[in-house]
Amino acid sequence: MTFTVEDYEKAIARIFLLKQDKEEHVIGTGFLIAPGYVLTCAHVVLQANNVNADNFTNSEYKKQPKTEIYLDFPVLASGQKINAKVVVWLPYNLENGDVAVLKLLTSHPQEAKPMPLVEVSRAEVENDKHSVYGFGKSSAGGRSDAYRPKANVAGGRFQLCKYGDPNDETIQPGFSGAPVWNDSRQCVIGMVATATVANDKEEKQNTAYAIPIRQLQTILKQVNAFCLHDILAQSLNRCGSNEKQDQFRKAIDKALLDCNPQGSGRTWQQQLVDLSIDRPPPTGWETEGRLVYFVMMLALINGRPTSALEELKAWVERCGHKYSDLFVRFNDEMKQKNFLASNECECLMVAVEQVETSTDELRVSLWAVPNRETYNADNPPMPLVPEKVLSRQELPVFVRELIREKLNPEPTPTIHLFVSRKLFGENFEMLSASPMLGAVLGSEYPFVVRTNPRTHPVGNHYKHEWHKKWKQLEEALEKKGGSEVKIIDCSQPPKNLISKIKGIYAARLKECNSVDELFDLIAEATALPVALWSRDPAFQKNLHRVLKCTVKELPERIRQEREKAYNSEKKPLLGHHLSLVWEDPKIVPPDMQFNSEMC
Questions:
Q1: Predicted TM-score of the model (pTM)
Q2: How far apart are CA 341 and CA 386, in angstroms?
Q3: Rg of the chain on CA atoms, in Å
Q4: Which domain holds residue 128?
Q5: Which of 20, 208, 284, 453 is the 20 to 30 A CA-CA neighbour of 270?
């Protein structure tokens, strides 16, 4: 997009001081750096608030001002005042501060385009001509066209001098905040921060000191994040229905989670600023940065409206990148990573390990599997939560909130909880998952227990038995559970017990006093993909009730029994004590893949 000196003038803002006599006085200059954002000097804002220059460095002015100020764009809409508030503040300092960013509270003229800002060294442009447009003695403004950088000064700023015209008085103190326009490059290379006016015979030239774009980069990145947040917020408000808003909100949450896993608990705007300033870019995206990477992620995710996509494209182009090329590149990368492009989830994998130094804390990781048939642990999606430490009581609350906030309600995900076998007897599915309602995971979602292979490494023999028996189970999925799930008396001698289990793929356990020891024993000789039992022996005789369904329907049937128990005033019931092991070899977390070297 070309940007001319005429565009430069149209993007100039005139900042006012409103005195008690109601007379308007132009106090300084600013310029449009992003849609809705104007850059100027901190001391211009202070002057607009009637602060005397002698007090600029007072401690009270170190804090960001809250008072609104007034400005207009005189070339396009002279006299049409726009209210603005300060959103970025570097307090007055002649060497490394004196910068303010203003957010416009109403729209600027449509023809005003954000100025292109380019980082250059003084040596690169010392022979180029530069223009500076600002407001000195005349409130109408004016432009000087023959300035050149003369020398670097303290703090990395550079001195601008007018050569060949020592009596020129164009640059006045009212030029503070003016953009320095490079004619040959057609861009802004800095902002005028201070100006001195010739007032005696020895000082023959007016001199301006400018802040180079290099020193403004952190602020500009922050403004980029603000601008992107505005796009997201405005697009969300335009979604119309609550359902569409919810889908877009979840898409944003998912993209942020994928790009900034440590951002939980921070606002969208805070996370976007984090991505722009504090988070290192992914490998291969060093030029574009993580904020652009986030936009490409959001563009790929289902659920974002078309209008938002068009604005995101424009944002990327304003950042100096070609959107179409980036999208092709990003899409190819995500295909290689098997990226989850929607919020649908058929299976939610929750991997749990005990924290070594605590008896109550658990180390938790989560992955969403949108489709069991297409899932490949060798090429997995990125985790919803790479790692988080939670107490046992916090775990169900965290999982429920994540499902409700991040995933679509349909299909209802089956929760696969991967734990150490010594935790098989725990009632995670019946612990309170909602402090307000007392809801439990087991009543809302099919919930199965799985062996955590990181705790119990899988050998080739077990793997062979496991896959063989699961294949047998798949052939019987449509058969009645009552006939396929065999009763196993766990009180018999180990040799007899293993002999019975070797010939079956699904069991209903009775007289099982130590579940973890039983499954350790089974793993020594064979595998048992599906096992059902009651944690309370008093309900063993009632297990047949939940088997009046097909094998395939068993997880959902048990959910119904748990829901019945949860809603009943009579306690305890069978549903309070049901445990189901469902060792589906297709659904295994990526860092728990089978490794023959473990054998």
A1: 0.62
A2: 18
A3: 33
A4: 1-215
A5: 284
